[in-house]
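Structure tokens please, single chain.
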Amino acid sequence: MEELFKGNPAKFPSNNTEEQNSVYKLLDMLDKTYIKPDPKIIDKFPNTDGEITITDQQQYPIGKIELQIKTLPSKDLEKPRYQCDRPFLKHCEISLLPVILIAVNAANNIAYWFHFSREALTELSSKLSGDSITLHIPKENIISYTDKGYIEEWTSIVRRYVARK
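Here you go.
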């Protein structure tokens, strides 16, 4: 068959496989009793990669959180960090739902999370001098197969947002 158009179709981004692996690893590590994830695995949607619904023991929804899921390089395991750009920070500022960044290192079965509260955004805005800022994620904000402390923390965040209405 004669080729009608020269060249190739659009390709997936170079980090696509790594990002997919991070999402799959995160989904595997999350406690499915309390966390009901709805991620966008391959998307073109800006700012977030889906949401999670937090439930109680009886599976009643408590609330939702928007997620931004990124790959954490092994070199950043001791001091987890992520480069946040201004448009993403603006999204966090105007979002009606809490926004949490989760930096996943699939190879080491670990992830770290950060909630972009109004206080955190205020602090970041005071330090932002260009188009992005390095966010240092607290090492105690951990997600792993054995550490489930995030469930209580996220439930508390959601309850505070619901109480604001």
